Amino acid sequence: MRREEFIFEKYEADKAKGEFRFYYSLGGEIDFVEKLSVDRESVIWKNVNRELLDAVLFNSHLMLGISYWKTYCPEKITVNSGKLNKEQAEFWNKLYTNGLGEFFYKNKIDFRGLVKFPYSGHKTVSVKFKAKDRAIVPFGGGKDSAVTAELLKRNKNDFILFGLNTSRVQRQAAKIAGKKTVIIKRELDKGLFKLNKAGAYNGHIPITAVYSFVSLLASALYNYKYIVFSNEQSANYGNLKYLNHIVNHQYSKSFEFENDFRAYLKKYISPDIVYFSLLRPFSEFKIAELFSEHKKYFDCFSSCNRNFTINGKSEKRWCGKCPKCAFVFSQLSAFVPKKELIKIFGKNLYQDKKLLNLFLELWGEKKIKPFDCVGEEEEVLRASYAALNAKEYDNDYIINYFKSNILPKRKDMAKKFKKEPGQSREHNIPTEFTRIIKNL
């Protein structure tokens, strides 16, 4: 399965349609066009900094190309749409390599030295502009972004919600949040799906990195200084080791990526856009506690990724079968009464015997962390311990298994979990936002 060369051909902006088109090809034989579009009436084009827009589009071109490059993973990469220096090329080499770690592992691809973006002695200058003191919050309709929105509202920050495409869950949760939402529509080339059906490589991409670059487009078009994500401590921890390399499903949600992205943004795009995660100091367990205070979202939110697949949306908010459903159920079971929790998920996941293997993975018993946006084993153990002590789940299969088979092996659990998980000092939250998380 080989194609010799992947080419980043060009990108273009069509202001009349509010459309941005990104062109790619595999060896000049197979062509792709991906489109991003906005409501053309929503953009005051005369106020958009052209240099900034061009820098954002060029880098978005490189980011969006990951979906097409991975079909055959050509060793030769050609960039016709712009120029990179060595440091920029190394950024993209690292992002493609680490961001596709799960993809390489599942497709049994030796990635070592595979990704090599071309570079020259080109000097790229970042663009300065007068950004308005307001924020964009990427909003997926899950518990994390809902917590970020509520914290910013409580602090009376000026912000909007941002979505890359939209779903029923996102729309309903955004309505509850009560904030304006800006949507950028993404349309992948249909040829990509034909190649996948024909046997081309397919698999997970670093979608948060895609959101990160497209959020820069929203910032450039609508003039927003801050981009506030909702990524937590737990995203830093990988799933397994492959070819002596840590594979992390959540790499582009990690603090490592956040630091790399911020440095790249400042040096090669604009120092006047500030990118950070407001929830970085917190564990998933703490975020679940914060979210449990906002019951108005209970009937509409979802963190199940089956709501956000490319080929359609799920009719159910929670599939009740995936690692994310099991993980979120466990975290909320520590803070939400059983009756309310079952209403949220449509069933009691602690009574589903088919989920035992998933919970064994989440508890760290299988020595592999599930490939999904889930937290660390300690957070699941802590939540299961809290559910056990709450007595509500005494007769439930999963909690009974935990009591009989997991708890006896973790004799230090009771002492350890008496102490609440503290805030991490590893974050990039600007001083003007730190008071929001103080004393939480």
What are the main properties of this structure?
single chain; 440 residues; alpha/beta; 2 domains; nine-stranded mixed beta sheet; two-stranded antiparallel sheet; 17 helices; globular
Write a concise synopsis of the structure shown.
It is built from 17 helices and eleven strands. The chain is an alpha/beta fold.
Describe the structure.
It is a single chain. The protein has 440 residues and is α/β, with parallel strands linked by helices. The protein folds into two domains: 5-277, no CATH class; 284-416, no CATH class. 38% of the residues lie in helices and 14% in strands. The chain contains 17 helices and eleven strands. The protein has helices spanning 50-64, 66-69, 86-99, 101-106, 143-154, 168-177, 190-197, 207-222, 255-268, 284-291, 323-333, 338-345, 356-362, 377-390, 397-406, 413-416, 431-437, and strands spanning 5-14, 19-26, 30-37, 76-79, 135-138, 159-164, 181-187, 226-229, 240-242, 245-247, 274-277. It has a nine-stranded mixed sheet with strand order 4-1-2-3-7-6-5-8-11, with helices on both faces. A two-stranded antiparallel ribbon has the order 9-10. Helix 6 (168-177) links the parallel strand 6 and strand 7. Helix 1 packs antiparallel against helix 8 (207-222), helix 11 (323-333) packs across helix 14 and helix 14 crosses helix 15. The termini are far apart.
